[in-house]
Design goal:
alpha+beta; 107 residues; five-stranded mixed β-sheet; globular; YaeB-like fold; 3 helices
């Protein structure tokens, strides 16, 4: 896929502004453009993926986790959530249910 459209949720945009510099975000988007099937599929979310991204000077351990959903036919990447790695290990059942509901609306 040569073209992807990145669509950010309001929650993602707000948190991303706190956690990532614009240069880091551009690098992440460039990476995802070439590696859009990367990341671990999160069970019970309808196909959302979690990808680890190291921040400038911090590496993956001090970086962030991005939850996204790709609609392959349309080439849209929905950037749903972002959080620091040290904030949480896994999503709660409630968070997964919310993501599943969002994905069902996107398909």
């Amino acid at each position: 896929m040569d073209y992807l459209e990145f669509i950010e949720t309001t929650v993602f945009s707000r948190k991303r502004a706190e956690l990532m510099k614009d240069d880091d975000f551009q690098a992440f988007q460039s990476y995802l453009l070439l590696n859009h099937h990367e990341g671990d599929t999160i069970s019970h979310t309808g196909g959302c993926k979690k990808i680890r991204w190291g921040l400038d000077g911090k590496g993956k351990r001090g970086g962030v986790r991005v939850i996204y959903y790709l609609t392959a036919p349309s080439g849209r990447v929905y950037l749903l959530l972002i959080y620091r790695k040290n904030e949480k290990d896994d999503l709660s059942g409630q968070e997964k249910a919310i993501l599943r509901s969002i994905v069902q609306q996107l398909d």
